[in-house]
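Milestone M4 deliverable, item 7.
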Amino acid sequence: MDPLAQLKDIHLPAPVSAWPLSLYWWLVIIAVLLMIGLTAYGISRYIKKTRLTRLALAELLQMQQQGCDVNDLHHLLKRITLTSYSRETVASLHGEAWLNFLDQQASSKKHVFTAFSENTALWTLDLYSAKPNVIANTLHFKTCRDWIKKTPLMPVDCNVNNKLKHRVEKSVENSNV
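Output delivered:
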């Protein structure tokens, strides 16, 4: 008899099952889901925060395409600020105090925005006339576009930081003196 014929076939072990998952795989799954959730939350907050800016830039572009007066730009900026800041702070501003307020809102620690106050005559020349005749030019639109992009615009009903509100109210009080 052949001794090799008495050998039994090789037995393979049972295949390794993916279930139950090890603790490390559960941690990886939880971490990935957490990252996806945080990313979605961050994107939704960004969209909510920049909504007013996007709407304002779209309306400014539409006004530029149609052509408008400088007074129309003042009305747009006033509507934007009334949406972003408290009515008590913004509604009574006019003339140089209004232009200083606009400059202060677009200024930051690194860059001081002075486009409105440097060109006071250009912005207030035709402000109170019954029939405005100063047509807005590219400088007016560029200044408004830069202001909208540099100013942190958020509707008042959203979570506005009280510190920011206090800073705005204090800067307005100082400009009215």
